[in-house]
Amino acid sequence: MKKWLIISVCLSLAVYGNAQAVEDVSDVELWTGVSLKYNFNKRLQFKLEEQLRLKDNLTTFSQLLTEGTLTYDPGKIEFLKPLELSIGSRYVVDNDTEGKQQGIEYFFRYNLDAEYKFDFGRFYVDYRFRFQSRNELGITELDGDIPVNDLRHRIGFKYNFDDWKLDPKLQVELFSRNDDQTTYNFSRFRLRLGSDYSFVKRQDLDFFLLYEQTVGKAVPERIYGIGLGYEFDLKR
Questions:
Q1: What is the pLDDT of residues 190-200, one digit of tens each?
Q2: Burial class (CB in 10 A: 0-12, 13-18, 19+), 10
């Protein structure tokens, strides 16, 4: 338990120190989710997830997300065994509370993922590359709807302690955005520290702390997030 506390304190101090160094626009958000996972066989898996997010220091509805992901493990070839390939889609109900035009907006996003996992005894490392594209529904390109594309690079670390179910997981993710439809520019980064707990067979709780910051802006935007998720693994 002491190891988990030390990691949490170090990340909190780093985030707080960075927040005090530069003027910024900050918010505290809550991310919650419920998901169902089904394995068709050893190599093919489907996951359905519903998420609810709050913003404005947990006082305002932010987003409702419905997401489906299909994951394939091409593990027959030896060097491909740690690799997973995924395709996913997300329907977004977004509460826009900024600018002149405010209200509920609807978006569709799809993503293509490639994730590679490494195992060093009790220490685990994984790398995920994601391409995603999002556009607003009900608006054409002539009306100003231009798809927003992102390239995301995420690396994660996990250590499995003896006789301890709350193994810490740390993720660092970099985002590059294509706003002008020609080039990708580094736009933000995200830190996530958390763990998961299997309290019943095939049922997991996931909880985490999150820090996200934009880059390349005169006044950075920062998010301090709290997350809680529940996952149920349907038995085939």
A1: 999 999 998 88
A2: exposed
Question: The tokens of 21 are what?
Answer: 């160094």
Q: Which CATH number characterizes residue 161's domain?
A: 2.40.160
Alpha helices in the chain (DSSP H): 2-21
Average pLDDT value for residue range 66-75: 93
User: What does the pLDDT read at residue 21?
Assistant: 46
Q: What are the angstrom distances between the C-alpha of 52 and each of 65, 105, 179, 235?
A: 7, 15, 26, 26
Q: Is the dihedral of CA 27, 30, 150, 193 positive or negative?
A: positive
| Domain of 12, in residue numbers | 2-234
CA dihedral 206, 198, 46, 107 (to 10 degrees): -20
Please give the tally of structural domains in the chain. 1
What is the reported pLDDT for 42?
86
Residue corresponding to tokens 């101090």: 13
Q: Mark 175-203 as b/e (b = at least 16 C-beta within 10 Å).
A: bebbeeeeeeeebbebbbbbbbeeeeeee
Q: How confident is residue 20, by pLDDT bands cut at 50, 70 and 90?
A: very low
